[in-house]
Design a protein that fits this description.
44% of the residues are buried. By secondary structure, this protein is α/β, with parallel strands linked by helices. Strand 6, helix 9 and strand 7 form a beta-alpha-beta unit. Bound molecules: 3-methyl-2-oxobutanoic acid (KIV). The site of 3-methyl-2-oxobutanoic acid has 11 residues, from loops.
């Protein structure tokens, strides 16, 4: 495992993307990415659920197995889905299942409220990535995907969350849709790297859902993403060309 704290100290940015299958994992790994996350965002961009709250442990384990076959050098982290880490005991048991299928680390959503779970995982020697700010697994209670850290109490709670996960042994912390100034303040306050998503340029690294980056889920793109490719358009173009050629009686190649 790379020393991510050292990277932070050196000011070297950390790169992370999601993968849910073997070919994507292998392509990302070959591209030199530092961290590959089997995110529970797979519920939306791969399985077609409305949000991540329906993703099951079995689904996550199945996709983590596939991704593990394609990763040789990046750190492979898997998301623990909702209701699989309600207690410290359950969190550790879930984390171990991910390690058994090839994950090298795990992530769960929550800060100070989840210190017992995080300590159980890190105490067992399993690398842990924290996730604070906007928590997609809480989208139903929150009533949407809202920017975090606008008010003073919210900002103070997020700083406390960041300190708590660092103390509990996390090797990094994802900051999701946290206002830029606060993300910068958190980054300067803690010793572990912050990995931002929609949280501005001052984080120690950046993570994105790969489908957003490559334009493979064209029905919804978060405001903070500028797709670097239009893969959905390419698929539509190739499929339509195949349909036309086949109907015209032409050869497939
Ligand atoms: O599920 C996911 O893909 C994530 C990242 C967007 C951070 O948690």
């Amino acid at each position: 495992m790379k020393d991510f704290r050292e990277m932070k100290k050196r000011g070297e940015k950390i790169t992370a993307l999601t993968a849910y299958d073997y070919p994507t994992a292998r392509l990302l790994d070959e591209s030199g990415i530092d961290i590959i996350l089997v995110g529970d965002s797979l519920g939306m961009v791969v399985l077609g659920y409305e949000d991540t709250t329906r993703v099951t442990l079995e689904e996550m384990l199945h996709h983590t197995r596939a991704v593990a076959r394609g990763v040789k050098r990046a750190l492979l982290v898997a998301d623990m889905p909702i209701r699989t880490y309600d207690t410290a005991e359950q969190a550790l048991a879930t984390a171990k299942q991910f390690v058994d299928v090839g994950a090298q680390g795990v992530k769960l959503e929550g800060g100070a409220s989840h210190v017992a779970q995080i300590e159980a995982i890190t105490g067992a020697g399993i690398p842990f990535m924290a996730h604070i700010g906007m928590l997609p697994q809480s989208v139903r209670e929150e009533g949407g995907y809202k920017v975090k850290g606008r008010t003073r109490p919210e900002a103070e709670a997020l700083i406390a969350d960041a300190r708590a996960v660092e103390k509990a042994g996390a090797f990094s912390v994802v900051l999701e849709i946290v206002i830029g100034d606060l993300a910068k303040q958190i980054t300067n306050t803690i010793g572990i790297p912050t990995i931002g998503i929609g949280s501005g340029e001052h984080c120690d690294g950046q993570i994105l859902v790969t489908h957003d980056l490559i334009g493979l889920f064209p029905w919804f793109t978060p405001k903070f993403v500028s797709p670097a490719a239009r893969v959905a358009d390419e698929i539509r173009r190739a499929a339509a060309a195949f349909v036309d050629r086949t109907r015209a009686g032409g050869a497939v190649v």
